[in-house]
Amino acid sequence: MRRLLGQAGDIIDQFRNPFTNEDVRVVHAINDPFNYTISETLILVPEDFRGDRSNLPKIPLIFPWQQMDAETLMLATDMHLNYPNPLQPEKWPRESAGPMVQVSELYRYYFSVADMKNPNLTQVPCSGSWARVTPWLPWMLMGMRAGHTLYMVDFTGADNPGHASPELRAWLDSTPERSKFLTAPDSDYGPSLSSLENYARTEKPAPAK
């Protein structure tokens, strides 16, 4: 994840936490591109779910499309999650926000009606927004202090990475791990791990303060 400081648009690797007055190392969220195979039913559990799948209900996958006007279609997909924290406070006292993680993610996608009806298009331009309410990011070392993080993002689709700023493009090109975001996956592979699961795999608990 790109985090900016000041007006220069620099990508930062260290952050002065204003709540603790501590300099902390930024752990960028470089998640594997999240992907899955679309089917006729709603996906209710992740790919690496180890429980019994046989009793899961079969819910038809019907997206809540809305026609906003004669020219615009809108799709809203919202998720409200509450799941065990991969960073349990006993092991991660400074990184963990608690035993459970409560997250809301709100997506809005806007499409042209004419594009959606065009049989000659294999991809459709879109714009939209993403909002996420989540506990403090673990690298902020806030522990279980009250509060949360709010992401607000506006986005647009592009058929090439040329729309990225020179600073962001250079950062993405700097390592193979980052450059994978410049090309869409061509297959469904998994598991698709969350940023907290990745953090638990790649980081170590911070020393007690």
Task: Give a structural overview.
This protein has 209 residues and is α+β, with helices and mostly antiparallel strands. It has one domain (4-202). The chain is built from four helices and nine strands; from the N terminus they run E-E-E-E-E-E-E-H-E-E-H-H-H. It has a five-stranded antiparallel sheet.
Detail the topology: elements first, then pairings.
Blueprint: E1 4-5, E2 10-11, E3 14-17, E4 22-25, E5 65-67, E6 72-84, E7 100-112, H1 113-117, E8 126-134, E9 149-156, H2 166-173, H3 176-179, H4 195-202
Q: How many distinct helices?
A: 4
Instruction: Enumerate the strands of the largest sheet in spatial order, edge to edge or round the barrel.
Output: 5-6-7-8-9
How many discrete domains? Answer: 1
Mean pLDDT: 87
Low-confidence stretches: 1-5
In summary, what is this structure?
The protein is an alpha+beta fold.
What characteristics describe this protein?
5-stranded antiparallel β-sheet; disordered N terminus; 9 strands; alpha+beta; 209 residues; two-stranded antiparallel ribbon; 4 helices
